[in-house]
């Protein structure tokens, strides 16, 4: 990728905007961001499988997410920002009980340090105590991914957080590409990167 002549201006602006915030970045972090901007490239994925969509509230979004989880036979890899939905947790626990390997990376700040209700910690603890591989990530200001990768074939994504608010009151969307192994492979690479940058979650209530 050819370096952008606007990159120094972009980084300077970001540095100024972050300087006084809780997310103030060190120079090393800005260098890493610059490298990511310069080297990132989109991934072309061939169309395959079938696509299904849902919306919320009252548009089938949560039901579609639960159906994706319930379809799993071998493994589920999940990336999450807010993780407080009792129905999503219950579906993942059902999957684990039937022998599905469940792995989750969740945002540390949203689910731990800023979780005044305790719902995030309780949800993560329930999965960890059931033998799921649960990790939390603080490598980014916000870990804003909402993704499920099921059986290395199916990908669920969209704006939908795994929370009650997303299901009941927020305007959200969910898209599922069933049986597209190439798309799943691309998202697995993204999952693996975030997994390496995360740390194990210890059950707590």
TrEMBL record:
List, in alphabetical order, the Gene Ontology terms for molecular function in this entry: phospholipase D activity; RNA endonuclease activity producing 5'-phosphomonoesters, hydrolytic mechanism
Against CDD domains, the record matches this protein to: PLDc_Nuc
Keyword hit for Acyltransferase: no
Q: Using the UniProt record, name the top-level EC class of this enzyme in a single word.
A: hydrolase
Q: Which reaction does it catalyse?
A: a 1,2-diacyl-sn-glycero-3-phosphocholine + H2O = a 1,2-diacyl-sn-glycero-3-phosphate + choline + H(+)
Q: Where is the signal peptide?
A: 1-24
* Pfam families recorded: PLDc_2
A GO biological process of this protein is: phosphorus metabolic process
Among PANTHER family, the record links this protein to: CARDIOLIPIN HYDROLASE, MITOCHONDRIAL CARDIOLIPIN HYDROLASE
Q: Which InterPro entries match?
A: PLD-like_dom, PLD_domain, PLipase_D/transphosphatidylase
Q: Write the protein's name.
A: phospholipase D
Does this entry carry the keyword Cytoplasm? Answer: no
Stated EC number for the protein is 3.1.4.4
Domain PLD phosphodiesterase, residue spans:
139-166
Instruction: Please provide the record's keywords in A-Z order.
Output: Endonuclease, Hydrolase, Lipid degradation, Lipid metabolism, Nuclease, Signal
- Record family assignment: Belongs to the phospholipase D family.
